[in-house]
Design goal:
mainly alpha; 6 helices; rod-shaped; 2 domains
Length: about 130
């Protein structure tokens, strides 16, 4: 059972933080692609004898790396933190009002007494005996 709880916690974490995890993945991929492009261009420019242009590609690579690193840090800082109470609680209330299952549950929660068919039969037998 503990195994299922771990998977449930992991899936809840992924569901709540999917957009930040996706940003981290895309940023890592962007850093990798930027480095690969720089390596290819540096090799090409060195072989073609235009090595003075390598500095421009190096600058573009590091601007991209720093940009993606900033996105990664921002995403990591946002992971797992609760959203602001006013916005999230208002949005959650709107989601609960639109959810048909929660509306049905609210009907049961707000009733004064919940009576089943068996309760009605017992009450009718009590009335007959009196």
């Amino acid at each position: 059972m503990y195994h299922y709880l771990k998977w449930a916690a992991l899936s809840l974490f992924i569901k709540r933080n999917a957009k930040y995890l996706l940003l981290i993945l895309v940023s890592l991929l962007g850093i990798y692609i930027g480095d690969a492009i720089y390596e290819d261009m540096a090799d090409f420019l060195a072989k073609s004898g235009r090595s003075e242009e390598i500095a421009r590609y190096l600058l573009m690579k590091w601007v991209g790396v720093l940009l993606f690193a900033g996105v990664i840090l921002w995403s990591i800082m946002r992971l797992g933190f609760a959203k602001k109470e006013n916005r999230s609680s208002k949005k959650e209330r709107e989601d609960l009002n639109n959810d048909p299952y929660m509306q049905r549950l609210e009907k049961f929660k707000t009733k004064d007494s919940l009576r089943s068919k068996s309760d009605m039969v017992i009450e009718s037998h009590k009335k007959e005996k009196i």
